[in-house]
Each structure stands twice: as structure tokens, then as C-alpha cells.
Amino acid sequence: MNTQAVALELFPELATPVVEKPARTKRTTKPKVAPALPSAVPVAALQADITAVEATVPARDLEALARQLEAHGDYRIQRRLQPRLQWPGEPAGKVMRTVLLDTETTGLDSGKERIIELAMLCVDIDVATGLPVGEVQVFDELEDPGKPIPVEVVALTGIKDEDVRGKHLNEARIAELLEGVDLIVAHNAGFDRPFVESRMPQFAQYAWACSFADIDWKAQGRSSAKLESLAQANGWFYDAHRAEMDCHALLAVLAQKLPQAEQTGLARLLQAVSRPNYGLQATNAPFEAKDKLKARGYRWNSEQRVWHTRLGDDVALNAECEWLKENVYGARRAIVQIEKQDALVRFSNRPGVITHQQL
Length: 359
What we know:
By secondary structure, this protein is of the alpha+beta class.
């Protein structure tokens, strides 16, 4: 039975009814009465219909229906993201043992707030292809923060005080998963790294990459760098804001080829982690240059009262210094501060190597 027949058998009311042309009647002077509109279908009834389809139609037929809709230009289909615990293929050569990590916390300040959930996926990345290979090892545990979880965090994550009461992260299991790891990836490493380093200092020993900051998603044609949005762009939806599922979504997104590049997101991160980057401060920049700096992508640090930006390599750093000299400082004598960071300190609260350069 074809998919259209399956749909009509389950929902005969969807078939186009045959409407007989009404006989002409003599016009009267009675006022016209608008026909009654059909009442809305109750949500419960719709849910019952969906449940009936799921119980009756084989998954292959539902997929066929989805593909049929996708072939029409007016429809886009979103599929629930299915976590993968085994990736096919054998590595062509060198692999990078990689941990994808996510945390849920009681707040934003790593100095005051605490982890309530930590999830990690440990998997090998084939350096030649930028693809995951083999088994995915999973860690996902809750921890009691020792204080009430704020209501806004409960609303976001669904994690309640009673869920974490008396629970502690298995540090021995975490150490076991970290053994032999070459790289840790988080989608907002500037948030997650300080939290896990505060909780377990051994995380400071590893190179880190950030899939949010180390990939220019706008240049890749994505309207948003949020993980949910990146997954949706690939046709997936999932239950976000729980650490393990966010990790599975991140791995799935990064295993895809970047829209404007002949490499996967994972391959791009392996490149990023292999070279240092630089934090550049436009020290004592004249006030009248603020619009130029802002348009260039600089950010204002209100505490240090300085415009700053980040550069990905030596070439970009040298080019930026030339731009500052020509467009910001002009004939003024200027000395800028440069902070060199490698993957061992990037996204942590620890400083890199700081130097000063005269322009």
C-alpha cells in the first residue's frame, strides 16, 4: 500500500469530498445567515490521531511521508536527533581522542555558582577525515550544589533540588575517561572550562577548543551560532538544556561538513587548537575612534576601560596592528597589549603570555 493510501485509510476525512451543486432556489428577502464555521479540533483528538498513526503505520512509511513532504518546496521536515553511540568506519591514520563536554550550573559566575550536571562524550576523531570513528563513551551525572537551585535554572533544565540531593560526581570515572585525551570541546568553553577547572583542577592539563568561538558560523551562512539553531539547520530537533543531550547534538553538528568549507566542524576545531591565538587591547585609543573600533568588532571592557578583540593567528595579528596604526592612532605614538594564548589556557581564567608592542 502506498503512503498516500495509508494516510487516507487512517484519516478518511482528509480525502477531498464530492460536493453536489445545490439546486437554484428562488431568491427571498430574508437576510443571509453566514454558515457556521467548523469547530476547532480539540488538542486531545489530534494527539489521539498522532498516536494512532504511530501505532499503525510502520516507521518506514512515516519516513516515506516525510520525504514526500520534503520534496515539496513549501515544507521542511525536522527529525528528532537520535544519539549515536557507535560511528562507522576505521581511521585512515592518526586519531585525536576527544571529549565533548557540557555543564548545567546554578548560575553564570564560576567563582560563586556550582555544577549541578556534568556530561562528557569521549570519542576518537579521524584527523584525515575530521569524522568520529568507533565507540562513544558516555558520562552524565548530577551533583548536589549544596544550596537551592534557582527557579530560573529549574525552569530551563528541569533539574530540581530533590534530583541532586546527596549526589556527587564520580571523580574516578571522570579521571578514567580523561586518560589519553588530546582535546576537550565545549560549545561555550569560556563558560564551561572555568566551572570544571574550579571543581576538578585536572581539567587545566588539557587543550580546549570552543565550537562557538573557534568557528565563524556567520561566515558559514548560519543565522545563529546557538546549538539548537545549528541542529535545526541540519534538520534535527532535540530536548535542549540537559547536558548529555546537548553533547550528542554538538557531536552530530560538528560531524557535518561546514556549509562553506570542504571540512567538518571537528576538522576546523583540530586546526584551531593547533595554533595560538591572540587577545589584542587597543590601549589608550582616542575617544573619536570608538565607532570605528566597534564596527571592526572590538568590545569595550568597562573595568579596564579598553577596547579589545581576538585574533586567530600571527597573520591576523600583524594585519590588525597595521589597521590600528592607520585608522585609530594615526600619527600618535601607541603601545598596545598582546596576550598570546595556546589551547592549554584559552577559555580559562588563567592568563596567557602578555607582551607590549609599539605601533
